[in-house]
Amino acid sequence: MYKPKMKLTTEQMSILEGKQGETKAKIMETIVRYGDIFDAPELVKVTHGEGHLVTSFGLSLLKPVYRVMDQIIDAGLKVDDGFTMDPRPLDTENVPYNLLDKFINKKILYGAQDRYEEQLTKVGLKNKDAFTCACYFNEVGNKPKKGDILSWAESSAVNYANSVLGARCNRNSGMIDIMGSIIGYVPKFGLLTDEGRKASWKIIIKTTKKPEPQILGSVIGIKVMEDVPYIVGLDKYLGNELTDDVCSYLKDFGAATASNGAVGLYHVENLTPEAKELGDKLLLKDYKEYIVDDNEMERIYKSYPVMWKNKDKEGQLAFIGCPHLSFAQLNEWTDILVANLKKHNNNKLNIRTVLCTAPGVKEEFIKTLKYQELLKTGATLTCICPLMYTSNPLTHSRRLMTCSNKLRTYSMARFYKIDDLVNELTK
Amino acid sequence: MKEFKGRVLAEGKYKGKAVVSHNGVNTLATFRSSVLAGKKKVVCSDQNNPDLYGKNLTGVALCLPQTIGSTTGGMVLQVVCSMKINPSCLLFSESIDSLAAAGVVLSKVWEDSNIIVIDRLGKQFLDTIKQDQEIEVKEDGTVVLL
Predict the structure, then answer these.
(1) How far apart are CA A411 and CA B29, in angstroms?
(2) CB distance from A329 to chain B under 8 Å?
(3) Domain B2-145's class?
(4) In this predicted complex, what is the ipTM?
(5) Given an 8 Å threshold on Cβ–Cβ distance, is B36 in contact with A61?
């Protein structure tokens, strides 16, 4: 049996010893070993019991995941408070696929999707619409409170929960998320501690206009990697209240810090909960400084490689909404697209465009007149993860466009600034 | 011969080639294409990592500061180890990050993997080691540059 370095309670020790079954013992061993690597002194209770799992795709090759799931089901274990998931990979109604795509996706690439969703239901999936990377949207409802301890893994959701909601969660990996949720404990280290939430970087924003969130997040993520940044000067553009628009900005900004670097928590002076409460006391003594101005933003933007075979050709398919768009963003994007089509004397977008949002948000948005306006542009609205569209190797030769730095990082999609993307789509 | 000593997270012996990334290794972006295609060897598919892009990573000692990127990273490492196309060693100059740590633990507990993992080898380790250099890894966490 594994000998833990951390201090365990009698109950935790008995689980590790196998007194509640072999599978539960292996789950406990996984969580304890994980914590021991970081010298965690103990396990702490997960106080926001609703889980969120990052692995939502039934890729045929993820056999170890399905094997572990079967072991969990056979042992009669589940997440008591249920969980939400990252987005589903496929939507044949609202995303363009050719016949070969459909065959490869359904029969080969995501051939295990149905089986995997059956497994997920047995271990606590909340419902058939619980698939989004932005589970904290009000329309979805998996929204932790300040100070809650979580066992989540989705990088953008962890980043948002820590930074905007003030909850506490480490940047866990897929599989650790469900194991912590089942066992009800996570190791106390890193972002779960007061010290681990302090910033080792002071980022000074000196741009001449409100920086585009996906580029600013990338700039900061690349610089600080896994460290915690304390950002000053951004409140000048965002204000001091976490309005819907500001939360949407921070969602996109945070996702870029997490995917272009490994940021699990950031503080924005005078805006995010802990920064409002503690101010620059959040800065560690020997913090480093980094100034972000227009030149630095442009330098990083220009460093993004264009992976298209023919860089001079026009794009073929645009994805907007990685992470998933909020209700406020759907309204904003519709207005932008409609206004720019009008400016160019066009009725329809000239490039196939797919907007991505959470099922709960879509359900609300399609009730509005704005949705009809969006449909008239030729755009469609889906709830898939656009990254999973790009898992099909046939898509690698397609000229995909995006304003998401997360999608750019993990695919061959070309990154556009928002204004440039809108211009390409509507001209 | 230069030697570096780190913390042993998963012990083992290795003698062979080192592949070096001076920047954080994005696990998903690095392994994704090879895993999805069910390849017998990993060829790094991370367009943003000029040190590793296009290089074989199976059976080598991957030397890196930390891993970065998507939090599927640990699970991806578990899958790579389960497919037995993993690097033989992961040699971290810094303290291991939470995603790689999860991957190592998942691989050990659920896949019985024999991947060797050493961290805290120091910045000088990455500054000194050369791409494709022959190295020896000892069970006590010593890495010898041959």
Answers:
(1) 8
(2) no
(3) alpha beta
(4) 0.94
(5) yes
